Amino acid sequence: QVQLVESGGGLVQAGGSLRLSCVASGRTFSNYVMGWFRQAPGKEREFVTSISRSGGSTSYADSVKGRFTISRDNAKNTVYLQMNSLKSEDTAVYYCQASRPSVALTYWGQGTQVTVSS
Known about the structure:
Layout: E1 3-7, E2 10-13, E3 18-25, E4 33-39, E5 46-51, E6 58-60, E7 68-73, E8 78-83, E9 92-100, E10 105-108, E11 112-117
Parallel strand pairs: 2-11
Antiparallel strand pairs: 1-3, 3-8, 4-5, 4-9, 5-6, 7-8, 9-10, 9-11
């Protein structure tokens, strides 16, 4: 089992920045690919970004490229999401995900609300 706890959400004006954190416990953090997803009201949960186990490879949704940056600190069992130049369409609940695709394991955090006012 892996427990994931997100923090750092809140209310910010358009153009502003937020940094989300997700702390993992329970298993070896560095064994997991980490990702961030988001779900806006009335919409499906969507992929935002992911980072490889070592942190050497990242992937981003087109909608956040150049504005969001994912990073991880395996010594602290933490993954971060730096969000800059926020837009109203970034408003959503942001979820942290830990996955091991080779064994079909996926864990989710409880989510943190991000609200961008225009």
